[in-house]
Amino acid sequence: MTTQSYTPDAHRLAASLAAIYAGHPDTRGLPAARRVAVTAADLLPHEPEADPAAVNAAALFHLAGRPDDPARAEASAAIADAWLRGADAPEPFMASTRAAILGAWGVGDDDVNGRLLWHAAQLDLASVERHADYLKDVPPAGRAREDYLSAYRRECLTPALGLRERLSIPAAIEMYGARMSRLAPWLDDQDAALVPGDWRRLSEIADIRRGVERLLDGEDPALVRSEMPAGGVPYAEYRGQQRAIIAGSHERILELTHARIEASRNVAAEKYLESDTIHKPAVEENLFVGARRKARQLGLSTETAEDIARLLLSNAREVQERTLNDIAQRLSRLHGQILDADSPETRTEEADMAIPSLVVRTGDQPLARENELIKELRVTGLNEAYPEQRARFAQWFETPHPYILTGQIVGSRDADLFMQALADGQRCRVIATMATDGPMHLGHGALGNLLIYFQSLGAEISLGFRDESGSGEVARQTMCDRLLTLAANGLDLERTDAYLQLDRSAVVETAFALGEATPLSVLNSALGLRLSSSATDTFLPLLRLADILHVQQPELGGPCRTLVIDGIGGDVYVRMARNVAEGFGFVKPSALYLRMMRSLTTYDDPATGSAVEVMTNAVPQGRIAYDDAVDDIRRRVGRAYTGGRRTLEEQRKLGGNPDPRVCSVSSLHAFHCTPDGDAYAALQERCRSGDLLCGECKASALDKLLEYFEQRHEARSRLPESVSERARALAGTAR
Ligand code: SF4
Predict the structure, then answer these.
(1) Ligand 1 centroid, distance to 566 Cα (angstroms)
(2) What local confidence, expressed as pLDDT, does residue 285 receive?
(3) What pLDDT is attached to residue 635?
């Protein structure tokens, strides 16, 4: 309490301050310091931890340094130090005053006195006196006057207008409101030559300036746009502002353009290879031919022409998709109203969310459009684009799973509620489903790895198998085989509730009950059913919902926290399940969305014309199954699609693209060969820098894969008979 027991001698202080500020180049320094001291005193009762004497002394000295000194804060603190030492102030008091002065200028550590003083100093910007002080010294007409007034707008008027968002002390916010209602009419009364008539728009323009700068820094355009002022500035003025900023950032713009061309080149090349449905390959090829011809005429290199063509393509595609999304969202809102009317108890925001756009409904391109889906579906992003959210989520775990650390878990919905319940020792279930459409491949293995991980954390596991083989017997055999492979990987079957969907009456009964409570309009708006859709198309989604919700039926233990693990395309079912859960007395399910493994080949589904991006049994040459022959595995990895360049030389110079959504070998590394977070990051870095070439990368993936399979096969052959019996019992197969 030494700091509070010392009070500077007021008479001496007043006389000295006048002397210190008398020869000061800033003639307004002392009155401003006094005003700030008074404001700080008014704020003091609202900050009980602040030291009144130190705040007062700091307020009076904080402008003592020369205005043109770049280290004005430190200089002011030094002057205060010298004066206080001469006045025999104790060292702790001097230290508090110093810290408060630095805090007032936003320098140094977070200091309660400094924070208060910073608020007081900022509030002075909104005082009529400050503005009157500034404007009374305006030089006569001419260049100096223009410079002076532009400094006034930059340093005083614009910051005052945008201050509200920067204040955090509630009393200061209130004071700001009062000051602005006094300042506004005063500004309106000033000569237009000093204060522009539309001065209120200055803060809007400042926001736009900041927005453009953030865009140039590469921030998400949608986010920046959402934070822009609502009213908007006339286009000509906006363009003027933008031009001024761009003119001042030529180098950055060039760098940025280069990076964009580079990125769009990759996207367009891949799209071209995968013959995206929006731009047919023939159309693209024509564009390239045209671009090359034009380039020859203009004397440009053909590569440059192709780059430009690809940039145009990628922009065109973006615009088309945005338009599609806009239309779909408008339709969604319409359907959202129908949904609301049908289920009055459904919360509006959930109802809105329940309707994804047409583009999402198709489940098209879950890898290439991952970030778009995260935003459109409003799930919590956890992939590479959201490092902070991912780091926060990882804090729930003592040893986070590598898929969390490397961003292979791309998003979540209320996963924190599930994790909290798990941490509290409540009964928690993880839910996953698989189709019995063929042998178990590495994509199923990745899902299994997560189930094993959550089982080790104490969660119960519920694993449903959907019969897509058309034969119950084949489905049961496939299920039994997968369970044994999962057991060899580490899943404890004794603690796993695995079932074949149609064999479990609770699923079918729940599906019927959900069907009665789900109007066709909801299914239609969520899944985009058509009149030509079959009646089965309306029942299968109900089974998916029942997979999620039936585990909370009384015979299976009753309501509990559940976590669905699925690809991001499964979010539509999670949202529908969440919409109806409470109506049935269930707890709303949470979800984690796992990135799908990338297919090793590029293949277009002839039925839809879309590229099949993910590893699936439907495209056997693009998947690696646990019972594949070694030679097949070698051949597929050898031919795998990568993010490498056209030539080795180019790759050494420019590096490859190790994004696991693009490069299938990188996907193998992320999920199975090099899952460790640091090792995988190092591999990606080597690829980007051109140090790692695709041949070496494939060879190391292959070695690790073969070793992995050898271990699994051996582990499976050593499974005790009791495990085989359990697998058979769960699958309902005969010995
Ligand atoms: Fe993919 Fe590896 Fe080639 Fe990089 S070096 S593009 S990660 S295969």
Answers:
(1) 26
(2) 59
(3) 93
Does residue 365 form part of some domain? no
Distance of CA 137 to the CA centre of its chain: 49
Q: Which atom of ligand 1 is nearest to 657's Cα?
A: 6
Query: What tens digit of pLDDT does each residue of 244-253 get?
Result: 665 555 555 4
CA angle in degrees (0–180, nearest 5) for 645-648-651: 45
State how far the Cα of 671 lies from the Cα of 443, in Å rounded to an integer: 8
The answer on pLDDT for 3 being more than 60 is: no
Nearest in space to 28 (alpha carbons), one of 71, 63, 77: 63
Residue 356 phi, psi dihedral angles, 5° rounding: -75, 165
Q: Which of 582, 531, 87 is nearest to 347 (CA)?
A: 582
Q: Single out the residue in 272, 297, 325 at which a domain terminates.
A: 325
CATH, residue 652: 1.10.240.10
Atom of ligand 1 nearest to the CA of 692: 5
Instruction: Note if the pTM is more than 0.85.
Output: no
Instruction: Give the whole-angstrom CA distance, residue 73 versus residue 91.
Output: 19
Which range (511-515, 608-612, 650-654) has the least confidence? 608-612
Domain limits at 643?
Answer: 600-730
CA distance 657 to 212: 28
Please report, for the chain, how many H helices and E strands are present, in that order: 35, 9
10 Å CB burial of residue 690 (0-12, 13-18, 19+) is: middle
Q: Report which protein residue has its CA nearest ligand 1's atom 7.
A: 658
Q: Is residue 273 part of a domain?
A: yes
What is the predicted pLDDT for the residue at 323?
Answer: 47
Interval 468-515: pLDDT, tens:
767 778 889 999 999 999 999 999 999 999 999 888 999 989 998 988
Rounded CA-CA distance 564/570 in Å is 9
Q: What is the DSSP string of 296-335?
A: HHHT--HHHHHHHHHHHHHHHHHHHHHHHHHHHHHHHHHH
* Separation of CA 693 and ligand 1 centre (Å): 6
Ligand 1: atom nearest CA of 664 is: 1
Among 575, 597, 619, give the residue marking a domain's end. Answer: 597
Q: What is the dihedral of CA 481, 487, 493, 494, to 10 degrees?
A: 130
Model confidence pLDDT, tens digit, residues 215-264: 666 677 677 777 766 655 565 665 566 556 655 555 554 555 555 555 55
Rg value, the chain, Cα? 33
Residue 411 host element (H or E): strand 409-413
Cα(438)–Cα(620) distance, integer angstroms: 9
Helices (H), 190-301: 201-216, 221-226, 235-247, 250-273, 281-298
CATH code of the domain covering residue 78: 1.10.3210
Q: Within this chain, do residues 413 and 551 fall inside the same structural domain, yes or no?
A: yes
- Closest atom of ligand 1 to 697 CA is 2
Q: Which of 563, 603, 545, 566 is nearest to 443 (CA)?
A: 566
The total number of structural domains in the chain stands at: 4
Task: Tell me which residues have their CB closer than 6 angstroms to ligand 1.
Answer: 642-644, 656-658, 663, 665-666, 687, 692-694, 697
